[in-house]
């Protein structure tokens, strides 16, 4: 830590951490686990975003496997080049939607690398069982195509059949090489591929889309905890989203399912409490014909509204969630409108990295006169307002996927089921202690994350057994203890 503190610039700290991961993996994980709150923003959002943007010029060595269009027909051979054989989790991206930073092509590799280091540090999956993969089908980022340090194919993105065939060969090769119990986490694909990949491979492979499913689970947990402060059940609340893509519609659907479960109303009915705004305005029935399929369930009967602030005033949400990838879109007028409608407005600005956050923590607290229940995707520090200290929450899927993955691995699950996402949410929400609530927290601190992950893993595994999707039999009696016993720990022996 003393060495790291020599660096002032976050990107330099990131590079120092990546060097450490390469040269002394155990120390890297020991450091990350023991200093998780300080180092998460270094190896993960926001710094990993900058690292991806500059990946070509800070490149030292490949940290994961690159599979490009040039390897078509040989993907199985490429997989066999990876030195580790017993892989349990693959995080794969094609780099088209890296955080809220857009198409970063092959430079998106920073994301699978970062996510997998959290699988180990936060969820205890062995580092050697983790495989980061970037599929290089080109990039439409003109700046990168002209950048002399760009590390990927210099061509525009493959689409249609060319893309589908490469992905299909990849998915088949993974199953052939590692069996059906390897977890494939799709990460930061653009939504025109993400939903289809999940639907296509969800019935044949153990796949999980972190942006759609992991985000939904973490936000639902935060909302369940937030109800302690605002009162009522989910069904008593009205939700408005800015952004109707993977994160937005994924969260909306899980909330609707939980509502439907709690109140015994059909999910179609529950959806009516949830409204979404995209780049063209409120999603309403009159737009139905031109909407992508994942937006269709949210096209309710209403007049068109283009401005968010007007949508807030008319829809009167109690919860406002930002999943637009565009920074500073929760303006003073928007937050003030939320605060005039609600005693305690729930405001989540989920877009990453910090530059893309819909508002800052300080803005949310000051513009709501200290009444907002606020969480963001990237971390914000404490905020002082009116002689009170506010602790913003971090609603990031990093709370969920490490424990979720561990639960799948330890039960030998062969498919992911939506019920498991609800199980993960409930486990996370249950880990918020009375003491946390007294400090105004809706998420437990990351310092306890390994214990939290063990609880999430246990709940997810229990669901896998209940649904008959687990293959590791018999079911262990104490799943939390079993989860803890499965976790990799970078311990140092004492020779004294
Ligand atoms: N906190 C967390 O754990 C997570 C955060 N995220 C963050 O969420 C953001 C979005 O990700 P994702 O859902 O995958 O991206 P998508 O591209 O799938 O969706 C983005 C959505 O935002 C809409 N949008 C874009 N610009 C505007 C605007 N100016 N006003 C209103 N709506 C707008 C788009 O509209 P249209 O459809 O019309 O183009 C689209 O519906 C990213 O920044 C990402 O980092 C994602 C996953 C997890
Ligand atoms: C956190 C995350 O997965 C994202 O911003 O895409
Ligand atoms: Mg992501």
Q: Supply the CATH architecture of the largest domain.
A: 3-Layer(aba) Sandwich
Name of the CATH first level of the largest domain:
Alpha Beta
Report low-confidence residues grouped into runs of 5 or more: none
Helix content: 40-55%
**Which class of secondary structure composition applies to the elements?**
alpha/beta
Hetero ligands: NADPH dihydro-nicotinamide-adenine-dinucleotide phosphate, pyruvic acid, magnesium ion
Please outline the helices and strands:
Elements: H1 10-23, H2 25-34, H3 36-43, H4 47-53, H5 55-58, E1 65-68, H6 75-80, E2 89-93, H7 110-123, E3 130-136, H8 142-146, H9 160-178, E4 183-186, H10 191-201, E5 207-209, H11 210-230, E6 239-242, H12 246-263, H13 267-270, E7 274-278, E8 281-282, H14 308-315, E9 319-322, H15 332-341, E10 346-349, H16 361-367, E11 373-376, E12 383-385, E13 388-390, E14 393-394, H17 401-411, H18 418-430, H19 434-438, H20 449-466, H21 479-486
Bound molecules: NADPH dihydro-nicotinamide-adenine-dinucleotide phosphate (NDP), pyruvic acid and magnesium ion.
Pyruvic acid binds near residues 99, 188, 210, 352 and 396.
Keywords: Metal-binding, Oxidoreductase
GO molecular function, one term: metal ion binding
Family: Belongs to the malic enzymes family.
